[in-house]
């Protein structure tokens, strides 16, 4: 029987997946707080240093769809175990990088293997957890993701304040290894997993039909642009806070990442409010909140920057939650490969958008970042307004068996 909330098996599964999410996003985003140090060490521009973030998320974006299909053959727990231990090993190896190109190569490889966790975790939960307890289990996994994103930035900046970027990466790598060991000790073997060989024509057809749907295509663009703007803010805010007129120490600048917790709260609220207001209305409203936060961060005032960052973070996570849940519901009705494509676009936004944001910062400072992120979010707002007239999906074009054969999660 599937595991129910309150049972020992349920607790083991949820805490194992919490550890997996923590390890994944701690390693993925820890380098954001290290970008100023990398810029100084290797004498490169902020945009070039941001490739340490972009290559990691690019690897994840590239790996999402193929590893989703592979996990349907190889097994969920085996995929996640291998991914977590490989990612931790690559994280520790990054501390010994002889140069920036080697560091980038290791970051790209790490992102690729981490796709094995992102592509598999929710499928495992859906298979092994009783439906009435699934929402709580998913919530704990997402909490691990968001706390991991915050912890990576915070740990990196705290270690950097007393040592250097190499030690920061080593500490994060050791933490990821500990999380991998904890995950392996707690996770229960799949009881309801049935291996299904992936059929590439079915997978390609499901992807093609998803892209052909105008509603899903607009939602994919929303995810790409939202994430591109959000990562840009966190990539280059450290440069701003370390420079005049703020002149904050690394540790203090890193502490501002605690506002990342606002995203956990807003995600939960957005899910509930969408049930009342509807996703079309929630998407443009939450995007407007993010745009307001970006504007609030423009003045060179620490209070305004902090409040603006809280508003930006809350708005982003609420908008992302709304868009991704909309993709999931519409894709399920149409019988297409939607969620994996959304995640692919989402992380491509982090890779490409974050790097382009560095060019804006290098050219015009924080005013350039404000203009660049503001334009991205404004485009999402226009897309969200256009989605208000989107007709509901009413037909299923691919039977469930074909989707499972394609490796859909």
UniProtKB/TrEMBL annotation:
The keyword Chaperone does not apply. It is a multi-pass membrane protein. InterPro entries: MFS, MFS_dom, MFS_trans_sf. It is found in: Cell membrane. One of its GO terms (cellular component) is plasma membrane. Pfam families: MFS_1. It comes from the Bacteria. PROSITE patterns: MFS (PS50850). Its main location: membrane. One of its GO terms (molecular function) is transmembrane transporter activity. Residues 13-392 form the Major facilitator superfamily (MFS) profile domain. The chain crosses the membrane at residues 12-35, 47-72, 84-103, 109-126, 138-159, 165-186, 216-237, 249-270, 282-299, 305-328, 340-358, 364-385. Keywords: Cell membrane, Membrane, Transmembrane, Transmembrane helix, Transport. Belongs to the major facilitator superfamily. This is MFS transporter, YNFM family, putative membrane transport protein.
